[in-house]
Fold each of these.
Amino acid sequence: MVTEMNEESANEALLRPVRSGNVFEETVNRLLQLVWLGVYEPGDALPPERELASKLGVGRDTVRQAIKSLSDAEYFTTKRGRYGGTFFADTVPRRHSTVSRRVWTPADIADLLGMREVLEVGAIRLASRRTLTAVERDVLWMRLSEVEQAGPDDYRRLDARLHLTFAELAGVRTLTPLLADNRMALNELLDQIPLLGPNIAHSNHQHRAAAMAVLTGDESGAAGAMQEHLSGTAALLHGFLDGAPTRQGNGDRDATDLVETGPHGPPGLSS
């Protein structure tokens, strides 16, 4: 019941009408958000095509093409028979080079992280001011427990889901999709740096402090814990990526000022 209500809230936020002229690409992006932001668990059923088309404001042919493309890339699987349908793959694929590549400058990274600070610190302040329902409290505990127990393969997906939950608890309907878009861009950078054990342990401590502050209505404590957490992530990203060379230059710009996101990350880093 708790999971269903939480998924419904996230669905409403993420499966919003596509407003771009690139309807196929935007549809793929929205479906990938459901994967990377942990809205569904591996093996869960994808909503029906008709429902997806209605929520995204696109034709069923577009939805069908997007699902087919992502199935070919092993994000989804199709089962036949009475209980058949399209399901999220049991194993979440590693990010693939066919997903859009972009070049990041240190200024781009700083801008993305600045927007993250505005969104996430603001969100957790609002969440801590609200009187949460019993279901909302249970959801927060569940998401916190999931990320604390996550292994390396699932950590970033479940971490993203916890951060999305903080946004949902803010009670501002239009905030969640903004944070989701920011997190999808952030994930492109996070995938370029290794998971570091001490940082994961520190992040889990900060997550718990932030969650406890929200649950007890401690706005200052919640904002402080989130600010500290975001600053730690920012320090790692700047440390690993600022000035990392790319495999190709860009006009008159020095290649050492650029980071090209892709399947392998900057030289010398594991993903």
Amino acid sequence: MSSSGQREAVFATRQTLGNTKLRLKGAQNGHSLLKRKADALSKRFRTITSKIQDAKQQMGKVLQLASFSMVEVSYATGDIGYAVRENVKHATFRVRARQENISGVHLPSFAIQAGAGDGSGADESSEGRESAASQEFSLTGLSRGGQQVQKARDTYRKALKVLVDLASLQTAFVILDEVIRLTNRRVNAIEHVIIPRLENTIAYIVSELDEMDREEFFRLKKVQGKKKNIAPEPSSQSEPQTVQSTDAAAAVEAQAGSGDMVSAGKDADVIF
């Protein structure tokens, strides 16, 4: 529970308590899923980082060899730029893009398709396109330096493949970096803001409900005490009435007794 004690402004009822507990459970499940997603993305991010380092080292070596081979071609045959432009009729390579799903994140991946052709022969096999592409440079360096030209061509083919792989890795690196930051912000928000706020709200509702139960119990005790104090009053009021009725009966009897005595005296006087 956070030290700030922030909570939601809710009315303390048992229904609100149940809904808040359900929200807390959902937040905990979401935090667990996002945490596992962040871990999976971080693992893939580290793998891509190591691959980028290897690709950069390989790229440096391949470009160095390509530069040396081009220098050899220039030394052996001179400028062959015009001859290359004349022989190349179509694109030799085609870059194809596909997507890779990593924990819900779509990462682009690029691959080279050799021998692209003019687009009309899209159904041709890769071997046929490869042979067609090699035939385009069959006359380049025919007079001199043919071996150096072929070597430079193969070297630049390798450099192009490494360059495309490096571009794919760097694109995935940038996307994963942004997604990992966003996921970590969500994980921290749920862990340090949402879950403590819901826990504080639940604690507040529980304390309010307990206070209401104590107030209700105290009220019932007071009502029962008042009922016990009011119940004996009718019996205490009936006792004086009973005493008064007893006194009245005794007075009547006394009067009756005195009357008998008078009558008895008179009879005694009358009888001679």
